[in-house]
Amino acid sequence: MAKQFKVTLKKSLISCTDSQRETARCIGLRKTGSSKIVNDTPAMRGQIMKLQHLVEVSADTATKSKGAK
Questions:
Q1: What CATH number is given for 4-59 in this structure?
Q2: Residue 50: which pLDDT band, with cuts at 50, 70 and 90?
């Protein structure tokens, strides 16, 4: 199973560059406090690094197995 991260926007995008705003939008982060579960890929790691001063990243441990209901 692919490793996943939970990314939470902790600071506002008001004083950020347009490139950083677009990166947050592509991840799916719109408002302060919003969270998304993302897969661990090199592209996603690069996007997270671009926003490292604005987001909090934690390992997602609540992954479902296919047989569980």
A1: 3.30.1390.20
A2: very high
Residue 34 has what DSSP assignment?
A: -
Question: Tell me, what's the pLDDT at 60?
Answer: 80
Tokens matching residue 64: 């479902």
Measured in degrees and rounded to the nearest 5, phi and psi for residue 51 equal -110, 20
- The whole-model pTM stands at 0.81
- For residue 7, which of 36, 42, 47 has the smallest C-alpha distance? 36
Q: Structure tokens of 15?
A: 């004083």
Whether the per-residue pLDDT at 69 is higher than 80: the answer is no
Q: Degrees (nearest 5) of the Cα angle 43, 46, 50?
A: 145
Of 27, 40, 34, which is closest to residue 11 (Cα–Cα)? 34
Domain ranges of the chain: 4-59
